[in-house]
Write a structure and sequence with these properties.
globular; alpha+beta; five-stranded antiparallel sheet; 157 residues; three-stranded antiparallel sheet
Length: 157
Amino acid sequence: MSATTILNTAPLGALIRYTDNSPKPPARFTKKLAAWERSNGVGRLVKKEPPRPYPTWIAPASFTLHEGNFSSDGVILVTIMRTHSADSGLTFEVAEEPKPGQVRVLLDFGGCTELLHLAESVTAAELWIAKEGYRNARLEIVGEEGAARAGGAELAA
């Protein structure tokens, strides 16, 4: 699939695999392996952005994948996010979609909706919001996107 197809069809929370279709180099070639890993990986789709006009050019539509966290003693130190534009030359595929009944914790910011967390239930999502302290987060149950938003309009943490 192309990046444009991911933008148009993949739901927030889906696991997206991307590749440049090159073979993985042997581990002994550390620089080549590091370069290969930058173009081949998997991440959870957390944000889709439309094209953005600037005075001298227009940035293409893009999407952001959450690839993981580095933590120590339960504290997240670094979050790895990777943004791909609609004109990316990589090949993408949806590895896994969120299961019906899971709950997306979403935040609307800057005209875009960002996935903060994907929980197994409404209770788990509310506990996550209370723990993390997001005041303007809202819940959306997977499979009920067209219906009214889960839990009302906005939830206070």
